[in-house]
Amino acid sequence: MEHRNNQKGKKGIKRIYNALFYSLSGIAAAWRDEAAFRQIFVLGIIFGGLGLWIGQEWTHKILLVLPCFLCIVGELINSAIENAVDFTGTQTHPLAKKAKDMGSAIQLVLLVFFVIVWTSYLFYLFFKLF
Fold first, then answer.
1. Burial (Cβ within 10 Å: 0-12, 13-18, ≥19) of residue 99
2. Under 8 Å between Cβ of 78 and 103
3. Of 46, 34, 47, nearest to 74 (Cα)?
4. What is the reported pLDDT for 90?
5. pLDDT at 87 > cutoff 60
6. Would you name the residues annotated as active-site residues?
7. Positive or negative, the Cα torsion across 70, 86, 99, 35?
8. Which of 72, 67, 77 lies closest to 42, judged by CA?
Protein backbone atom coordinates (compact mmCIF):
# COMPACT_ATOMS: atom_id res chain seq x y z
CA MET A 1 0.00 0.00 0.00
CA GLU A 2 1.52 3.26 -1.12
CA HIS A 3 0.84 6.43 0.89
CA ARG A 4 1.77 8.96 -1.75
CA ASN A 5 0.04 12.30 -2.02
CA ASN A 6 -1.81 12.14 -5.35
CA GLN A 7 -1.26 15.88 -5.79
CA LYS A 8 2.47 15.18 -6.23
CA GLY A 9 1.82 13.87 -9.74
CA LYS A 10 0.66 17.26 -11.00
CA LYS A 11 2.92 19.06 -13.44
CA GLY A 12 3.23 22.47 -15.03
CA ILE A 13 0.74 25.23 -14.33
CA LYS A 14 -1.58 22.94 -12.33
CA ARG A 15 1.26 22.14 -9.89
CA ILE A 16 2.11 25.84 -9.50
CA TYR A 17 -1.57 26.67 -9.01
CA ASN A 18 -1.94 23.98 -6.32
CA ALA A 19 1.30 25.02 -4.62
CA LEU A 20 0.14 28.64 -4.46
CA PHE A 21 -3.09 27.71 -2.69
CA TYR A 22 -1.35 25.27 -0.32
CA SER A 23 1.06 28.06 0.60
CA LEU A 24 -1.75 30.57 1.14
CA SER A 25 -3.54 27.99 3.27
CA GLY A 26 -0.39 27.58 5.37
CA ILE A 27 -0.10 31.32 5.90
CA ALA A 28 -3.79 31.53 6.83
CA ALA A 29 -3.40 28.64 9.31
CA ALA A 30 -0.36 30.29 10.88
CA TRP A 31 -2.24 33.59 11.19
CA ARG A 32 -5.30 31.90 12.66
CA ASP A 33 -3.57 29.51 15.08
CA GLU A 34 -0.19 31.02 16.00
CA ALA A 35 -0.07 34.21 18.10
CA ALA A 36 3.71 34.45 17.66
CA PHE A 37 3.28 34.42 13.86
CA ARG A 38 0.76 37.25 14.05
CA GLN A 39 3.14 39.29 16.22
CA ILE A 40 6.13 38.71 13.95
CA PHE A 41 4.05 39.35 10.82
CA VAL A 42 2.77 42.69 12.12
CA LEU A 43 6.31 43.62 13.25
CA GLY A 44 7.56 42.70 9.77
CA ILE A 45 4.91 44.78 8.01
CA ILE A 46 5.52 47.83 10.21
CA PHE A 47 9.31 47.73 10.02
CA GLY A 48 9.29 46.65 6.36
CA GLY A 49 7.23 49.71 5.48
CA LEU A 50 9.42 51.88 7.69
CA GLY A 51 12.50 50.45 6.00
CA LEU A 52 11.15 51.32 2.56
CA TRP A 53 10.43 54.83 3.80
CA ILE A 54 13.69 55.64 5.64
CA GLY A 55 16.10 53.68 3.44
CA GLN A 56 18.06 56.23 1.47
CA GLU A 57 19.14 53.97 -1.39
CA TRP A 58 17.78 50.79 -2.92
CA THR A 59 20.39 48.69 -1.12
CA HIS A 60 19.49 50.31 2.21
CA LYS A 61 15.81 49.56 1.65
CA ILE A 62 16.53 45.91 0.86
CA LEU A 63 18.86 45.59 3.86
CA LEU A 64 16.11 46.89 6.16
CA VAL A 65 13.30 44.80 4.64
CA LEU A 66 15.30 41.54 4.48
CA PRO A 67 15.36 40.81 8.24
CA CYS A 68 11.59 41.47 8.35
CA PHE A 69 10.94 38.76 5.75
CA LEU A 70 13.44 36.40 7.35
CA CYS A 71 11.73 36.70 10.74
CA ILE A 72 8.38 35.85 9.16
CA VAL A 73 9.92 32.84 7.38
CA GLY A 74 11.65 31.79 10.61
CA GLU A 75 8.38 31.88 12.52
CA LEU A 76 6.69 29.77 9.83
CA ILE A 77 9.50 27.20 10.13
CA ASN A 78 9.32 27.27 13.94
CA SER A 79 5.54 26.83 13.91
CA ALA A 80 5.78 23.98 11.39
CA ILE A 81 8.33 22.18 13.58
CA GLU A 82 6.19 22.66 16.69
CA ASN A 83 3.06 21.39 14.95
CA ALA A 84 4.85 18.36 13.51
CA VAL A 85 6.32 17.47 16.91
CA ASP A 86 2.97 17.97 18.64
CA PHE A 87 1.32 15.71 16.06
CA THR A 88 3.59 12.83 17.02
CA GLY A 89 2.43 12.86 20.62
CA THR A 90 1.85 14.89 23.75
CA GLN A 91 4.26 13.05 26.04
CA THR A 92 7.55 14.77 26.86
CA HIS A 93 10.55 13.37 25.00
CA PRO A 94 14.11 14.77 24.91
CA LEU A 95 14.19 14.74 21.09
CA ALA A 96 10.84 16.53 20.87
CA LYS A 97 12.14 19.21 23.24
CA LYS A 98 15.36 19.46 21.25
CA ALA A 99 13.45 19.93 17.97
CA LYS A 100 11.19 22.59 19.47
CA ASP A 101 14.13 24.40 21.09
CA MET A 102 16.03 24.41 17.80
CA GLY A 103 12.99 25.85 16.03
CA SER A 104 12.83 28.56 18.67
CA ALA A 105 16.56 29.19 18.22
CA ILE A 106 15.96 29.87 14.50
CA GLN A 107 13.66 32.71 15.46
CA LEU A 108 16.02 34.05 18.14
CA VAL A 109 18.95 34.20 15.70
CA LEU A 110 16.78 35.98 13.12
CA LEU A 111 15.50 38.49 15.68
CA VAL A 112 19.09 39.22 16.79
CA PHE A 113 19.95 39.79 13.10
CA PHE A 114 16.91 42.09 12.84
CA VAL A 115 18.06 44.15 15.84
CA ILE A 116 21.66 44.35 14.61
CA VAL A 117 20.65 45.52 11.13
CA TRP A 118 18.15 48.08 12.34
CA THR A 119 20.30 49.40 15.19
CA SER A 120 23.37 49.75 12.99
CA TYR A 121 21.38 51.53 10.27
CA LEU A 122 19.82 53.95 12.75
CA PHE A 123 23.30 54.71 14.15
CA TYR A 124 24.50 55.23 10.58
CA LEU A 125 21.70 57.73 9.95
CA PHE A 126 22.24 59.50 13.27
CA PHE A 127 25.99 59.96 12.82
CA LYS A 128 25.57 60.89 9.16
CA LEU A 129 23.43 63.83 10.23
CA PHE A 130 26.18 65.21 12.48
1. middle
2. yes
3. 34
4. 80
5. yes
6. 75
7. positive
8. 72
